[in-house]
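Box 3.1 A note on notation
Throughout this textbook, protein chains are presented in two layers. The first layer is the amino acid sequence; the second is a token string describing backbone geometry. Keep the layers aligned when reading.
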Amino acid sequence: MSTDQMEYFKAKYQTLEDIPGVGPSTATKLREIGFKTVEALATAPIQYLTTKGIGEATAIKIVVAARKTMALTFITAEKLYEIQKKKLKMTTGCKSLDNLFEGGLETQSITEFHGDFGSGKSQVCQQLAVTVQLPEDRGGLDGACL
């Protein structure tokens, strides 16, 4: 992750209580109605908070503060296209899975595997730990795994 990307994700407020205007009782109320993180609060509709017993002035103040700390920005479609072009794909080691993922697993993305006990999730992850180390011409990323 680049320095710019790390700056983008760095939040000023780590907990609800860090937000100006959120005291212990307000934080407790927010958690009771489902807002446990600053990120969740930043995406909350103010009207929803007011229907749950948070005063309108308080709701506006804390949601605006949470949104400012998140450094939410918009980018153009052209910029998004440039970011997408830089993504690489890595083989899973299985042609059927690679076809399912349209060429393999994408970098700069999160891929979740879930399934029943014994369905092969751990085996896929172990295979990916090896595959990432392969040279690019063999479907890997010439990378490392920890």
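The first helix runs from residue 3 to 9. Residues 87-138 form one domain.
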